[in-house]
Design brief:
The complex is a heterodimer of chains A (213) and B (363). Chain A is 83% helix and 0% strand. Chain A starts with a helix and ends in an 8-residue tail after the last helix. The longest helix of chain A has 45 residues. In chain A, helix 1 runs antiparallel to helix 2, helix 4 crosses helix 6 and helix 7 packs antiparallel against helix 8. The mean pLDDT of chain A is 92. The radius of gyration of chain A is 20 Å and the shape is elongated. Helix content of chain B is 36%, strand content 25%. Chain B is built from 15 helices and 17 strands. In chain B, a hairpin with an 8-residue loop joins strand 1 and strand 2. Chains A and B meet through helix 5 and helix 6 of A and helix 2 and helix 4 of B. Bound molecules: adenosine-5'-diphosphate and magnesium ion. Magnesium ion (MG) binds next to helix 1 of chain B. Adenosine-5'-diphosphate binds next to helix 1 of chain B.
């Protein structure tokens, strides 16, 4: 406790600044990623042949190591928050895209058929049936993206985008363990809190009729 | 409302026709059963009516109007639809499920509420107890009831039912058949009902349409079909399900019995059955085990205890045996080894058996 108190009193201004930068990086890239990947997942769930191609392409993006990705983007887009956001945005896509797609595809076809047979339009079907039933999986995808983004955002410090990475890499450069811990612990904490929040949201969007007792 | 098929053919890509040159008119207020072995095109026929499938050739009309002329969604909102898997939305309560079509039709809340109460009352389900449950909190039979009520919700003149009771245990199935019969007596909807169970078809159908590999092979009342099957296929289809054995002389009790039970009423875990040619009613338990017979008077007076305990006979008892007993009584229940009621011998069924025997020897 004393040690933490010591770190806090020494580095609090850096911690707070890094935290806001980290939240900014994660928040913007997550929101943009969701805006693209969820509608794309909905579209692909109705066009399954295209889906295989698109999901494979997005998966390949995901396999590029983040360090390499930042290195590639550096000569093209330079340094700062914008190139970092672009990389993080691309990374955020896959979990949300895949979960939206899988969630919608796994809705019982009988339900879709019956919804159609009762005279729902395709839009009504999507809103009242498919998305309601896929919601827990979609939220799980958002949660996964968030956790990844929190850790990858530390790498963004390498191209000058700030965040907890600044503290960690400064610590490494200067053999300063205190500084490393000051960057690493809040990163882990942030990932943990985000994870908890989305677990709660997931529970909230799970239809009562489907919740485990 | 009438539903008319004119030269309707449906071919799924790269397959033999699922339905071939179908001509059929479903009359207003009748319950028409479509029956036949699996894959013979019953479901396809049904789904062409609400345009979940489009015919490859021919046309379908409702009250003389081509269904192509309706807007798809509007057509469907005017046709009830129930399927075997219930298709209840698991994320919606019983009430929300029933209200789906009324909501689509933008009924005001009061009217919807009242309608749900009314529908639940029709099947003796308490509103307070059931309206706010989710489907998985209901038994299979209750779920299927809600499925049926949902298809009735907006009071459509036409209802399509695709093996609605096919997944239920025998007892629930019989209870729901009784309820459907009662509802239909009251509502007089035009119902097209798919099943592969000939007993169910005979119990429920005003007319029965028998399909074989996409073709309608016979259409007629249950009596006509049982008495005059048009071909070997229909005969064997009926026979297979009835397990008649008419071709040899070592007749057994079952061969003489009528097996065409009609469920009359259910009380807790007991079912009252009636059968053509007998004034008495037959009481069985939930496993269809024979309890006893009840006179018509007692049934009418709601006196649901067996008043005559006729000794039933076994399915394999010999004719000689039976005839010697039959002198003293006018009906004889027949049970199998598990004491399940499988038929009743009446004067009528005896005469029918003789007629079959004579007919069988001629051919
Ligand atoms: N969506 C479909 N695509 C391709 N073939 C189908 C489809 N639906 C049914 N069929 C085929 O059409 C035939 C009739 O099927 P169906 O109408 O479901 O029969 P039933 O309801 O009598 O069992 C079967 O051979 C079945 O395989
Ligand atoms: Mg079928």
């Amino acid at each position: 406790m004393n040690y933490i108190g010591y770190l806090w009193s020494t580095y609090n201004s850096q911690i707070i600044q890094a935290m806001w930068q980290q939240i900014y990086l994660v928040g913007i890239s997550l929101v943009c990623g969701a805006i693209v990947s969820i509608p794309l997942g909905i579209y692909l769930s109705k066009h399954t042949r295209l889906a295989t191609w698109v999901i494979t392409a997005v998966s390949i993006l995901q396999t590029i190591p983040s360090l390499a990705f930042f290195a590639i983007i550096l000569p093209i887009l330079g340094i700062g928050a914008t190139p970092a956001l672009i990389v993080l945005f691309l990374y955020s896509l896959l979990p949300m895209l895949r979960n939206t797609y899988t969630g919608l595809r796994s809705v019982d076809p009988t339900l879709i058929d019956v919804a159609k047979g009762m005279g729902m339009t395709s839009f009504q079907r999507l809103i009242f049936v498919e998305l309601r039933l896929a919601a827990p999986l979609i939220v799980a995808g958002i949660r996964l993206s968030t956790i990844y983004l929190v850790s990858w955002a530390t790498m963004a410090s390498l191209i000058g985008a700030g965040g907890f990475g600044d503290l960690i890499f400064a610590g490494i450069d200067n053999y300063n363990n205190d500084l490393i811990i000051t960057g690493a612990v809040p990163t882990a904490l942030m990932a943990f809190i985000a994870s908890m929040i989305f677990t709660l949201i997931r529970r909230y969007v799970t239809p009562i009729g489907l919740r485990r007792a | 409302m009438t539903v008319t098929f004119s030269e309707v053919t449906k071919v799924y890509q790269g397959k033999k026709p699922a339905v071939e040159n179908l001509n059929l008119e479903v009359h207003t207020g009748e319950l028409l059963v479509l029956i036949g072995p699996s894959g013979c095109g019953k479901t396809t026929t049904l789904r062409m009516i609400n345009r979940l499938e489009e015919p490859t050739h021919g046309k379908i009309q409702i009250d003389g109007r081509d269904i192509e002329k309706f807007k798809e969604e509007e057509l469907r909102r005017g046709i009830g639809y129930t399927v075997q898997q219930t298709g209840l939305f698991p994320h919606m309560t019983v009430k929300d499920n029933i209200e789906v079509v009324p909501r689509l039709l933008k009924w005001p809340k009061d009217k919807r509420d009242e309608r749900v109460r009314e529908l639940l009352a029709m099947v003796n389900m308490d509103f307070e107890e059931f309206a706010h449950r989710y489907p998985r909190q209901l038994s299979g039979g209750q779920q299927q009831r809600i499925g049926v009520l949902r298809s009735l919700a907006a009071d459509p003149p036409i209802i399509l039912m695709d093996e609605p009771f096919g997944a239920l245990d025998p007892i629930s199935r019989e209870v729901l058949q009784i309820e459907l019969k009662k509802l239909q007596a009251r509502l007089q909807k035009t119902i097209i009902f798919v099943t592969h169970d000939i007993d169910e078809a005979i119990r429920l159908g005003d007319r029965i349409a028998i399909f074989q590999t996409g073709q309608l092979v016979q259409l007629g009342s249950p009596q006509e079909i049982v008495k005059n099957p048009v071909n070997e296929f229909v005969a064997s289809f009926i026979k297979k399900n009835y397990q008649f054995e008419t071709s040899n002389l070592s007749l057994k009790a079952l061969d003489l019995a009528s097996v065409d039970f009609h469920p009359y009423e259910s009380h807790d875990d007991r079912i009252i059955l009636s059968i053509d040619g007998s004034d008495d009613f037959y009481l069985v338990d939930s496993d269809h085990r024979f309890i006893g017979t009840i006179s018509k008077e007692n049934v009418k007076a709601n006196q649901i205890t067996a008043d005559k305990v006729l000794q039933p006979i076994r399915v394999y008892d010999s004719v000689q045996n039976i005839l010697s007993i039959f002198k003293d009584v006018n009906t004889l229940p027949v049970v199998d080894d598990g004491n399940k009621l499988v038929g009743v011998i009446t004067s009528l069924s005896l005469m029918n058996a003789v007629a079959r025997l004579v007919g069988g020897n001629e051919s």
